[in-house]
Amino acid sequence: xxxxxxxxxxxxxxxxxxxxxxxxxxxxxxxxxxxxxxxxxxxxxxxxxxxxxxxxxxxxxxxxxxxxxxxxxxxxxxxxxxxxxxxxxxxxxxxxxxxxxxxxxxxxxxxxxxxxxxxxxxxxxxxxxxxxxxxxxxxxxxxxxxxxxxxxxxxxxxxxxxxxxxxxxxxxxxxxxxxxxxxxxxxxxxxxxxxxxxxxxxxxxxxxxxxxxxxxxxxxxxxxxxxxxxxxxxxxxxxxxxxxxxxxxxxxxxxxxxxxxxxxxxxxxxxxxxxxxxxxxxxxxxxxxxxxxxxxxxxxxxxxxxxxxxxxxxxxxxxxxxxxxxxxxxxxx
Amino acid sequence: xxxxxxxxxxxxxxxxxxxxxxxxxxxxxxxxxxxxxxxxxxxxxxxxxxxxxxxxxxxxxxxxxxxxxxxxxxxxxxxxxxxxxxxxxxxxxxxxxxxxxxxxxxxxxxxxxxxxxxxxxxxxxxxxxxxxxxxxxxxxxxxxxxxxxxxxxxxxxxxxxxxxxxxxxxxxxxxxxxxxxxxxxxxxxxxxxxxxxxxxxxxxxxxxxxxxxxxxxxxxxxxxxxxxxxxxxxxxxxxxxxxxxxxxxxxxxxxxxxxxxxxxxxxxxxxxxxxxxxxxxxxxxxxxxxxxxxxxxxxxxxxxxxxxxxxxxxxxxxxxxxxxxxxxxxxxx
Lengths: 333, 333
Hints:
Two copies of one chain form a homodimer. Chain A is α/β, with parallel strands linked by helices. Chain A has two domains: 6-120, Rossmann fold (3-Layer(aba) Sandwich); 139-332, 3-Layer(aba) Sandwich (Rossmann fold).
């Protein structure tokens, strides 16, 4: 529904992590990203060609995707100038921000005048049910994190890619704007009304073949006080058979919460499993997925070996070293 | 803002529990309820005088309050006839259902024609922040339940009444439609967008005097897969100093989930406390509040004594026997 390929708008991203939407598209659908558009002061860089709107248009880009997330999701006046110019240049706009393109009168007016489309992928377009907790056929895997933004989506995408390479039945089930922009559908869970969160995940992961895996994109963390409720709805609506623990070893405090330390992997394991077994008594913690982007290869290998010994579980960085170990663990249950 | 007194509309409630909104108003603001309106097949009864619309009008009622909750919250055609007639009779309408009065074209048209108001108390009217987890001054108490609808709101209201009688500083903080209809303000938590749930509770319970108690209305249960995410947002946004465990001893399975057993009070204590200490390391479980409505007085007394011995905590039914024990426990921390 969203026309490809994209020009990825990074705005004035304060750091690389703020551009994780664009990074995700770039990593998982590189053919869809012809270039990046950065404003003065932008601290993110995807390594794509920096393009003006006209250059990107000439290179074939059809949609300007806002690939940067602000805290609170506001569309600033500085951004607005670029967005208006993009519409006038003949781009559609796509966004996963809480602040909607459709709520900006100037964007709506320019889009109407130019005949371009505004896509707000964060807006739920389905009337989700209240969760009924009924056991569903098929298998489900969920990554749960010690913190937000530790690699849960990448873990699910990497597992999906590996399962498909092995001829296994698998579907990546997006629950956030990046995943939705990558695959074209999913549940924008953080924008779902509270009472329907768990039901939206039941809807997203319906009955399936007994040997089919739903790879559900994780969100937040049980230990992140801003978003923990979203995480628990995902655990109970998803009724996973398998949990994968996700962690970023160099994080010094919970993202956005300077006073909050990260939990240990052991605490995450015990808390997640106890809660997951409310919905699925057979749930198991099968592996650990580590995001080692900030570590050298030697450091990463050492950390993985140490963690594997300590936790008694398969451990890897699926983005750096492949998802083989994780898929082996899932195939074994 | 909602004009009192009320005529309480019970519709075709399938059981007494479905009328808990009306029951709450009736129990905590009896002066506001002049009578009840029941349709054919209604299985709920508040013990109020059954009135026609004309009789209620003559008795002084100003607003027809929809005091019954359906699963999914739909406004049926059978109800619609009564609601239209009520507007024509000169009543305002107030509702806490997910389906909004304002989304029903016929009600909107009749309200406009008659000059009456439609109040949807479930709709958030504030742009809530994302939770920042900052420690706030003042004390906070939250009731957490083994299940939904076990008496968490009553517990908070009863504690508030007892604290005020003792001259303590206390505020009841509603998080659901009944509480909002009782007090006139609060956060309709189950209708808040997922990302802002915890932030809405921080907003509801701001910095206060060191000896002031916020008595936060609980919602759902960590063990109820349909609503557990809402409960966890309440625990992390509320950062309670004190938890009170709420339980209804005769419940045979989780409400609405026939395949799900209730957790033990010990499981509730351990899970709630571990999660609450993420936001407030000093949090304590101070007491147990039991809803003994379905038990004889002898049974209730025996159950309370047995539970007190087993849990090593003060236990009572605050609605039946008063909230003194609970307030004693809170005053001691």
